[in-house]
Design brief:
single chain, 7 strands, Rossmann fold, alpha/beta, 266 residues, 7-stranded mixed beta sheet
């Protein structure tokens, strides 16, 4: 199953910023709490983007780890490498397409993380098997992704504004149908954790910044709602009108991020 998707540095940065400014919980702290990382670990972050998770691991372990970050986007890797200079380029950032065989050492990593990424893989069993191959015995795979109840008010506003159904989202639709079951088949032990983070908007502007960055034409996830830039802008205007009505009715918009964290042990 090929997912026609691409992420941009700007869109990703905007969504991360909105989570940080308007959310009530820190997802990085939650991840660190459930992972219980130890100094000296060898960590591979697949789909690392601009390096957010790699740097979180690095600072938590005070640099006492071998950390490699990989991504298919050269622009996101360039951004990660620029940020990496602040810590003496301690993280090894490199290109990797997780739809191809991983050119990395086998039985090497204590932890492989794939945060908000793996559900874009063309062949889930192949990609998970490659990750399993690279882990040491007892090593862990950690993946995260949106759950079916994620951002319900966000989708409600879009449905009301457009009068159209929400297209299937790869994350929430593929974890239950493909990803978790494949992890159970490949690994000796699996566990699931849930993270909820309410984002509270008292004005419509930050909600629309998030909406534009989520539905960006470049990401190619929402093509059933618009085909041209003019149609995209018309959809944005309709969403802003509907969001303003929700805000006037309720006094605020509370959009709850619901994320699953899945840990599988080899």
């Amino acid at each position: 199953m090929k997912i026609d998707f691409q992420e941009t540095t700007d869109d990703l940065a905007k969504r991360i910023d909105i989570h940080s400014r308007f959310g009530s919980r820190d997802i990085d702290e939650w991840m660190l709490e459930i992972l219980q990382l130890q100094p000296g670990m060898k960590i591979l972050d697949v789909g690392c983007g601009s390096g957010k998770q790699c740097f979180s691991f690095y600072h938590h372990l005070k640099g006492q780890a071998e950390i490699t970050g990989t991504d298919v986007s050269e622009s996101l890797l360039a951004d990660a490498r620029e940020k990496n200079k602040a810590i003496g380029s301690a993280v090894d950032f490199r290109f990797l397409d997780f739809n191809q065989a991983f050119d990395l050492p086998e039985n090497h990593y204590d932890l492989i993380s794939a945060c908000f990424a793996i559900y874009y893989a063309q062949d889930i069993p192949f990609t998970l098997a490659e990750m399993h191959r690279l882990l040491v015995p007892g090593g862990r795979l950690f993946t995260t992704g949106p759950m079916p109840t994620n951002k319900q008010v966000f989708y409600e506003i879009i449905r009301e504004a457009t009068g159209k159904p929400i297209p299937p989202m790869p994350g929430s639709s593929r974890y239950a149908s493909q990803i978790f079951g494949t992890m159970q088949d490949l690994f000796t032990k699996t566990e699931q954790h849930i993270f909820e983070n309410p984002l509270t908007f008292d004005t419509v502007e930050p909600f629309m910044i998030y909406t534009r960055a989520s539905m960006s034409e470049d990401r190619k996830l929402w093509n059933s709602l618009f085909q041209t830039h003019e149609e995209f802008e018309a959809v944005m205007r309709a969403i802003e009108t509907t969001a303003s009505r929700f805000l006037e009715r309720d006094g605020k918009i509370v959009m709850t991020k619901v994320v699953g964290g899945f840990i599988a042990t080899k």
